[in-house]
Amino acid sequence: MPPALFTTLPQPPTLTHQSPKDYIIDPRENIIIHCEAKGKPHPSFSWTRNGTHFDIDQDPNVNMRPHSGTMVVDISREKVEHYEGVYQCTARNKHGTAVSNNIVVRQSRSPLWSKERIKPIVVQEGVSLVLPCRPPAGLPPPIIFWMDNSKDYTHLITRVSQSLNGDLYFSNVLREDSRNDYICYARFPHTQTIQQKQPITVKVLNRKSDCARVDERRPTFLTPSGPSSSKMVLRGQVLEMECIAEGLPTPEISWTKISGDLPAKRTAFLHYQKTLRIVNVSESDAGDYRCTARNRHGFVHHTIHVTVKAAPYWISGAPKNLVLAPGENGVLTCRASGTPKPSITWAMNGIPIENSPKDFSRKVEDDTVIFTDVQVGSSAVYQCNVSNDYGYLLSNAFVNVLSEPPRVLTPAHKVYQVIRNHQALIDCTSFGSPIPKITWFKDSRASTLDGDPYILHDNGTLEIHVAQMHNSGKYTCVARNTLGISENHVYLEVKEPTRILKQPEYKIVQRGRSVVFECKVKHDPSLIPTMTWLKDDGELPDDERLIVDSDSLTITDVTENDAGVYTCIMNTTLDHDSASAELTVRNLSLPLPRKQPDPPTDLELTDQKKRSVQITWTPGDEHNSPIQKFLIQYEDSLHHRGHWHNLTEVPGTKTTAHLKLSPYAQYTFRVMALNAVGYSRPSFPSRVYKTEPAAPDENPTGVQGFGTEHNNLVISWKPLSGLQSNGPGLHYRVMWRQKFLDSEWTSVTVANNSKFVVSGTPTFVPYELKVQAVNDYGAGPEPVIAHGYSGEDLPVAAPENVQAMILNSTLAEVHWDPVPAKLIRGHLKGYKVYYWRERSLHKHNPHHVEKQILTFSGNHTRGMLPGLHAFSLYSFNVRVYNGKGEGPASPTQKFETPEGVPSAPSSLVITNSNLDSLTLEWNPPHDRNGRLTGYTLKYQPVNNSNELGPVEELALPANETSVTLLNLKYSTRYKFYLNAKTVRGAGPAISQEAVTIMDEGKSLNAEHDLHSMHLIWLQMLSILLSLWSAVASRQVDIATQGWFIGLMCAIALLILILLIICFIQRNKGGKYPVKEKEDAHTDPEFQPMKEEDCTFGEYSDNEDHKPLKGSRTPSNGTVKRDDSDDSLVDYGEGGDGQFNEDGSFIGQYSGKSASRDTAEGHESSEAPSPINAMNSLNSFV
Fold first, then answer.
1. Per-residue pLDDT tens for 230-260?
2. How far apart are CA 148 and CA 151, in angstroms?
3. Which parts of the chain span the membrane according to its record (predicted)?
4. How far apart are CA 1007 and CA 1092, in angstroms?
């Protein structure tokens, strides 16, 4: 409503400005309490103070501003305290009375600090410290900060904190904290004054010596105290919680909300995470919050229980003024909420409504006042007061009963101008009481304008969606109510659109020549056009060579700088059109290249049907490049004006096309030609071809159902486009029902939208869904049934019968029973196994807890936990999860992994290398993976050709970390292998090499003795072979012959004597001695180096990667008669390369016998043993 009209109508008072409810004033300035109001007639004002009438005229220090209720108090002659109190303003005229809020006036206070003597504080380095501030209570409360005598702020860091009450906290003090000027300041913002506390001296005592270590400790909270606390905050306010902890090293603080997630957009962490701030608090922020202080010695929790209360607040806004005509009905609504629930009271003209004069047209129902058949004289101002323990809302809303004849407010004879095929809006703004009814007429008043192509809006505006030339003319707007009639005449002029008939064309010109761009335009004769040229979307250069005419642009003496894109723009007061062309400048006179074709012309529409039409055209010039195809485009001015869409393509040899069309569209067509250079410019558009409306041919696609909350179902679909609607009034019929219940379909009609929300559904229930398109001409085909589910909720059950099966030392398999589908309450996504290593079962390994999660998507009932640590205690639980989240955890289970093989010893060092001995020292494995049962040391010589000799083996107890090897070969390189063992077997070996010191004399003697023994052994074998051949030729059973038994005993005695000689020879310094200690520690249960294939693996280490020729694998010294392939041949001339029963190193380093003889000479590979000798004999038998 125009303000000028508003001021001429009777109106009850309306407050426009008032002071805040809590009004804190500066005691140094005059008191100004605002109260402004409007009304017709202008209202008068009065005040109450502390509930009683305040006679302003009787107080010489108080006056009221003219034509206003604002009260000004001069305090130059009276103390401010005299005027503190509760004030309320009243504005009244003959139509009603409005009242202000209760304005509590208080002066700001900035009291001084009480005098006190503060003793110096002496503390030991590393302890915590709190410096109290305790500022004086001010109004409003002061802002606290700490400084020193130099006015430098105290640096607040992770170790030093200022709490919300102003105290200064030290999580642990350092020597540099010693100072005598810790000063707490309080700034009172209202009076802009600052008060300071007496300086505090802090002295930090050093330890007795610089070497004395400060004792570290786990965190404890300085504030708040205890394990939990509570806090209340009002809705809409700022919630601040703090946790300050002491400890050494300085603890770090973190926050979580136990009962939900922190609101990310409203949450901030301040003061190095010690303060959690949530702004604009809502009821959802209530709950338990946990702060955690943590350092490397441990952690501590504190839980803060937050409750959110709410002063009253409007749900749908304050009550709104009512303007009613006599006999009309109306409602005043005062809808508010709060915590606790507020009470609502009504007053009329400042008097409680129960004490007001009776009015049978008025009925009060809680938060609503209902008016029925109001009459003149019922105007009044109603006050709604909503209050609870935390505040109140007071709102004024008037009911103005007016009896006014209609008035048309739109200026008379106003002229509206629009472009053809554009929208036209003709206004008819009116006022009256009762509200006038608007009707429109054109030219003569033969009939009202209602229905296509006219649309009448509620505010009286007449819309023509697509204006045509015949819509021009005189329009009459008539406003009428029971008190009269008013009319107004306006005019609509429909103008022809501005169009560029001849567009500028692409030009190639030689430097120094001239070029002309043409831009011929057609426009409405009544509109004045303005031509503008641009170069590369910017203004034309200020150059006299560029000449602009009414329909062309000429460039003379062209240079390379003139190259670019030129655009002509034709503007009128209503529309514009533009076209562009490119200029290319060449230095040499080259033949012009082929160009894109000219646009087709003479578009004609024939064979017109409801859903098809035939279009023909005349091709343009090909410009030396044959036309390959034609592209037909359309514009639908009814649904998508100004946008051209591709419709179809035809070969370049055709000049006609049959076009399939959709109902309810206004088509305009154009054609473009394509040759090898590119597309032509579009042809001039065809005439408009309108198709008739029809019912929809199709329904929306992509129908699906899902829930955003646990109790709703969101049905969504891909809406039809305007072209697919087939007619006006497109809407959708949405239908749903629970699956499997065979119930009736629930149906609702939805406007042109893409979703509908069904509330109050059960959680995660299957639904059948249908969405059907409907317009004013009927419904679409029967829709296909889609399926969906209502909203998910978190699972309520945990998997049962959870158990773990230990497969090996690093792998376990977890089994569980699936959670019933009805308890999952959503789409089953899978199961999550939370597991963590509690500790190692070995005392040497540290305590270690690190949670890991394995997710098993789908309906699994078991899962593998790989990569476990051997000999450890694990805990785990299982949870099901759906699209909403995880369910509760199953009871935590524990399992122990068995022992595994240990890792290699962490180091192996060779020391004290002498002529025939050396010492090996090592450290235990880093990962024991069980209880160590001992070590196995194997070593073998390596000759100058990198060939490996036989292996010696030594078993060592688990508690040893060094061993000395005696009787080694002089000036010989040895390869050592050391591995650790548990009950599960031997782990990988660590290797090392060393060389003994040379003594040539002893070395030669040892070699000669060993060679002699080797010859004796071979002679004995030759005799045994001859004897066996002779016996076998007699073909008799000799097992019972006495002489044969005696011969066998003699042979056994001979072998025993030879073995004794061999052992004595070895102890005198042979090439490969065996220490006495080996026999004492030989482990008959020795396992191979590798658990998987029972082999040592290849001979290699980190220090020597050279290949070793003719080498053999280390033997474990255990030979079984039935399984071994060893024979004397393996230790002499060589055989198939096999060396021991575990098969390790077989063939990897085996060389030919010639090379071995050459490399080793008369060196024996190993001293014979009785077992080997017997096995050799059995091979002949």
1. 999 999 999 999 999 999 999 999 999 998 8
2. 5
3. 1043-1064
4. 39
Rounded Cα distance between 450 and 439, Å, is 9
Q: What is the pLDDT of residues 806-824, one digit of tens each?
A: 999 899 999 999 999 899 9
Q: How far apart are CA 865 and CA 811, in angstroms?
A: 6
| CA distance linking residue 922 with residue 910, whole number of Å | 9
Domains and CATH numbers, the chain: 11-107 (2.60.40.10), 110-207 (2.60.40.10), 216-310 (2.60.40.10), 315-401 (2.60.40.10), 404-413+431-485 (2.60.40.10), 499-581 (2.60.40.10), 601-690 (2.60.40.10), 701-789 (2.60.40.10), 800-841+848-896 (2.60.40.10)
Work out whether strand 322-324 and strand 362-365 pair parallel, antiparallel, or are unpaired. Answer: unpaired
Q: Are 770 and 791 in contact (CB under 8 A)?
A: no
Four-point Cα dihedral 849, 850, 856, 861, nearest 10: 0
The DSSP bridge pattern shows strands 298-314 and 228-234 to be: parallel
Largest CA distance in the chain: 159
| Residue-wise DSSP of 295-330 | ETTEEEEEEEEEEEEEEEEESS-S---EEE-TT--E
Highest average pLDDT, of 264-278, 621-635, 846-860, comes from 264-278
* Contact yes or no for 295/219 (Cβ under 8 A): yes
Q: Please state whether beta strands 612-618 and 851-857 pair in parallel, antiparallel, or not at all (unpaired).
A: unpaired
- Residue 523 CA to residue 316 CA, distance in Å, equals 52
What element of type H or E holds 392? strand 391-401
Tokens representing 394 are 């007071």
> pTM for the whole thing?
0.47
Residue predicted with more confidence, 1143 or 219: 219
Contact 1069, 967 (CB under 8 A): yes
Closest residue by Cα to residue 984 from 838, 1082, 1088, 1098:
1088
